[in-house]
Amino acid sequence: MKIGIIGLGLMGGSLSIAIKKVYKDTEIIGFDHNDQHCIEALEYNLVDKVIDDINDFYGVDILFLAVPVDGIIKIVKQLSKVDKKTAIVDLGSTKALILNSVPTDIRQNFVAAHPMTGTEKSGPTAAIDNLYHGKAIVLCNIEDSGESQHQLAKQIFTNIGMKIFYMDAKEHDRHAAYISHMPHALSYALANAVMKQEDPKAIIALAGGGFRDMSRIAKSSPNMWQDIFRQNRQDLLDGIDCFAGELNRCRELIAQEKWDELHSWMDKANRLHEIL
Amino acid sequence: MKIGIIGLGLMGGSLSIAIKKVYKDTEIIGFDHNDQHCIEALEYNLVDKVIDDINDFYGVDILFLAVPVDGIIKIVKQLSKVDKKTAIVDLGSTKALILNSVPTDIRQNFVAAHPMTGTEKSGPTAAIDNLYHGKAIVLCNIEDSGESQHQLAKQIFTNIGMKIFYMDAKEHDRHAAYISHMPHALSYALANAVMKQEDPKAIIALAGGGFRDMSRIAKSSPNMWQDIFRQNRQDLLDGIDCFAGELNRCRELIAQEKWDELHSWMDKANRLHEIL
User: Fold this and answer.
1) Parts of chain B with a pLDDT under 50
2) Residue A100 CB neighbour total at 10 angstroms
3) Are B179 and B151 spatial neighbours (Cβ–Cβ below 8 Å)?
4) B195 and A272 in contact by Cβ < 8 A?
5) What is the pTM of this model?
6) Which DSSP string do the residues of B127-178 spell out, in sequence order?
7) 3-class DSSP state for residue A28?
8) In the prediction, which pLDDT does A81 show?
């Protein structure tokens, strides 16, 4: 099999590691607009070779787009020369706008995917083993993808250990706002709330596991997340408003010293973990 | 050395494990108002024996209060019969109200401590190795503690691998609101925001590491956290308001599509991790 990966950072690099473990006879060809990333990707053996023109991906069986979501929209417009059989799979965190931007002549090639995994780090040096194993991946509007492209993408994601979910792109974006995008906004806001205190160092010196966990994703790349927030703007605003309503309820119960109601509200939150 | 521990849950049980590793010739005596906890603490070898009257701690070198913060306030009022030399160390997450409630005749015995560690679990079965190792512990208003009591507490916490910080109780409570109490409120609110959606199971099925981390402490005991929220009410409200201000700023930048300003705001949040 011949595989192309555009974007050799955390997502693309880790995907390459995962695929190489399962598919031994595979050539993986990479592309990254950042020269340093290309050098590192070769150095860390993430890809077998790198190319400097995306038209040179002609003939690959599957081409993954592992770049920030605005980059995906730019790149899909340049892929018209791709082989009719090639599957093009994007790994973006938003789906509706990306699918709207896919040119009609390659729509059959295209499989819209969102792997629900990542870390707060970025670049080829952040690529890790097992980033994808055991994680969920959402495939959207699959009825518009070609059957062979769908099956190849499904086979690869299944073989690297992912759990596949199917969803409408708009439904995906609503869910992703709650499970991923809005929590990122919270983590950034938490970090900034502490940083604006008089002596943040004295506060942060006391950080235990709870704070470390809650603030971890506040380290995520602003370039990447600015694009996601823009592309999923309305769902994200709805998610933030819903969260703010819950936090305000908590605040009012504390302010009004309604401790029994606060207890019930906390009890309800506990129940999340019966599902998670 | 003879050590007493009141409260044989996560904090008390894990403390016993840590102390036994370092101090081989130590007798650890436990007390818990929950009979099942007493049985489990003996079964898991967390303590050498349990007693059923807190007056029987007479003669211990050091007595740890590892119960929820309202329990600490009740218990300190029953400890007047304690030996003059005994150190009494509470491990509560709040400090000002607890210190205000310590009777004058045992104030010299008392060392107010807050170990910045824990998990979302509770009870003796949640006790783990290394809960305290490498973590921060805050000792408050130490000038009011007896010198020998302070030194013994300091020696034990240092020997189990903790980093000691000294602070005024009010300053501690302000800091703890930002680094621990307010983040717990956020986590509960996040869990409830997702749970009130139309199909929470479909959303939660997609949870990746970010959401899992952010919602982990929403599993914490409502009994324990209701007390903490009540005892540190004003600092917590201030912390929630400060956070809500930051989240609202994020919301407005998104609503008004001020993407460059949003990027700078995220950049600022990134800097937390230069300190953390």
Assistant:
1) none
2) 9
3) no
4) yes
5) 0.95
6) --TTSSTT-EEEEESGGGS-HHHHHHHHHHHHHTTPEEEEE-HHHHHHHHII
7) strand
8) 87
Tell which of B170, B182, B214 to mutate to test the A interface (max A CBs under 10 Å).
B214
Q: What CATH fold (topology level) applies to the domain A2-167?
A: Rossmann fold (3.40.50)
| A274 interfacial to chain B (CB closer than 8 Å) | no
Residue B46, CB-side half-sphere exposure with 13 Å CA sphere: 32
Determine the average pLDDT of the residues in A75-79. Answer: 96
ipTM for the whole complex:
0.95
Residue B190 and residue A243 in contact, taking contact as beta carbons nearer than 8 Å:
yes
| Mean pLDDT of the region A17-40 | 97
Look at residue B81 in the predicted model and tell me its pLDDT.
Answer: 87
A266 touches chain B (CB under 8 A): yes
Q: Are A113 and A90 in contact (CB under 8 A)?
A: yes
Alpha carbon of A75 to those of A4, A54, A80: distances in Å?
Answer: 13, 9, 10
Q: What is the pLDDT of residues A95-118, one digit of tens each?
A: 999 999 999 999 999 999 999 999
Flag whether residue B212 sits within 8 Å of chain A, measured between CB atoms.
Answer: yes
Domain residue extents for chain B: 2-167, 172-275
CATH level 3 topology of A172-275: 6-phosphogluconate dehydrogenase C-terminal fold (1.10.3660)
A261 in B contact zone (CB under 8 Å): no
Mean of the per-residue pLDDT values of chain A: 97
Q: Report pLDDT for A276.
A: 87
What is the C-alpha separation between B177 and B183, in angstroms, rounded? 8
Q: Are B175 and B167 in contact (CB under 8 A)?
A: yes
Q: What gap in Å lies between CA B46 and CA B182, rounded to an integer?
A: 32
pLDDT of amino acid A214: 97
Q: Select from A179, A222, A269 the Cβ nearest to the Cβ of B263.
A: A222
* Residue A152 CA to its chain's centroid (Å): 20
Contact B242 A193 (CB under 8 A): yes
Please list every residue in chain A whose beta carbon sits closer than 8 Å to the beta carbon of residue B220: 266
